[in-house]
Amino acid sequence: MTVLAAVGIVLCAVPERPAQAQSGQAPHERAWLAAHNAERTQFGVEPLRWNSRLAREANGWAIRLANEGVLRHASVQERGGRGENLWMGTAGYYTADQMIGHFASEKQYFRPGPFPNVSSTGNWADVGHYTQIVWAETREVGCSAVSNARFEVLVCRYWPAGNIRGTVIAPQ
Questions:
Q1: Which of 65, 81, 101, 140 is the most exposed place for a label (fewest CB within 10 A)?
Q2: pLDDT in tens, 81-124
Q3: pTM for the whole thing?
Q4: For residue range 134-149, what is the model confidence (pLDDT) as tens digits?
Q5: Hey, how many other C-beta atoms are within 10 angstroms of the C-beta on 39?
Q6: Nearest CA to 163 among 115, 121, 117?
Q7: DSSP readout, the chain?
Q8: Inter-residue contact 142 to 87 (CB < 8 Å)
Q9: What does the CA dihedral 46, 54, 169, 87 come to, rounded to 10 degrees?
Q10: Which residues are CB-neighbours of 82 under 8 A, at least 6 positions away?
Q11: What is the Cα 128 distance to its own chain's centre?
Q12: Are 158 and 84 in contact (CB under 8 A)?
């Protein structure tokens, strides 16, 4: 198995499947999902479903990062192989749309092709958040944001993970 990592996304093999999505989303959860799906619609791939289990897992990791005051990916083992996008910004300053918009802004450097040869900069990490959002095989997402005195940390988890080496990613 080839595993690549960078702040923003981790490449991995397909692990066990998380539980199905549940209803009863909070407004910020609906906003995160809508922002993801707006990007997916533009890219021409199926919308994601909200997965409460992924959101709970993301919340646990976001709490840890906020307590540590750092931004780092959970290991592939800690995430059960799920995809992961991370974001950190000034606490209370950003909306859910702006958080996901930060990931989506990477599309300016995206070029279709086999992963990891998908960035006009030559560095896949410059588009890794975006490609995880629009990865055609990804079906579910769950996100959580946690604040400390200075920062807000957003963690989004994806099932199945995207950014798989050798897989072609291109708008549909």
A1: 101
A2: 999 999 999 999 999 999 999 999 999 999 999 999 999 999 99
A3: 0.86
A4: 999 999 999 999 999 9
A5: 18
A6: 115
A7: ----EETTEE-----PPPPPP-S---HHHHHHHHHHHHHHHHHT-PPPEE-HHHHHHHHHHHHHHHHHT---PPPTTTTTT-EEEEEEEETTT--HHHHHHHHHGGGGGB--EETT--BTTS-GGGTHHHHHHH-TT--EEEEEEEE-SSEEEEEEEEES----TT-EE---
A8: no
A9: 120
A10: 15, 18, 54, 57, 157, 158, 159, 160, 161
A11: 9
A12: yes
Q: Which two tokens stand for residue 2?
A: 């080839």
Distance CA 11, CA 83 (A): 7
Instruction: Quote the tokens at residue 48.
Output: 């994601």
Q: Using CA atoms, how far apart are residues 162 and 152, in angstroms rounded to an integer?
A: 25
Sign for the pseudo-dihedral over CA of 86, 91, 93, 95: positive
User: Are 131 and 9 a contacting pair, CB within 8 Å?
Assistant: yes
CA 45 to chain centre: 16
